[in-house]
Amino acid sequence: MYGDAAAVRKILTETGGTWAVVGLSNNTSRAAYGVAAVLQRFGKRVVPVHPKAEPVHGEQGYASLADIPFPVDVVDVFVNSDLAGPVADEAVAAGAKAVWFQLGVVDEAAYERTRAAGLDMVMDRCPAIEIPRLG
Fold this sequence. Notes:
Layout lengths: L4 H9 L4 E5 L8 H11 L3 E5 L24 E4 L3 H14 L3 E4 L6 H9 L3 E3 L4 H4 L5
Parallel strand pairs: 1-2, 1-3, 3-4, 4-5
Helix pairs in contact: 3-4
């Protein structure tokens, strides 16, 4: 419902190659770490966004989306649903082209706001699961 096949395909193949991954740190046990590695294997530039602003997977980290000094195409959100809406709003403000809420991350109001702002959005899906299916 919140990420039909066409939206998934468009974001993964046409939207652009720079993905800000909100919630990505060097904690290898977190899903964000593994998903970011998969995105890199498929040619995406992964930009970590985490309060620690630490480098992950060879890319400089930033404390917030607003701190990233270059455009990002997709904002991939690995935070709890109650925190995800403000991140979607920050993605709109930062000029992103799309927002992707990970599995289990659902905020219907944020989905509506983000789509109304003209961005593509997928919610409650995982790009690491979807991208290999594109072949």
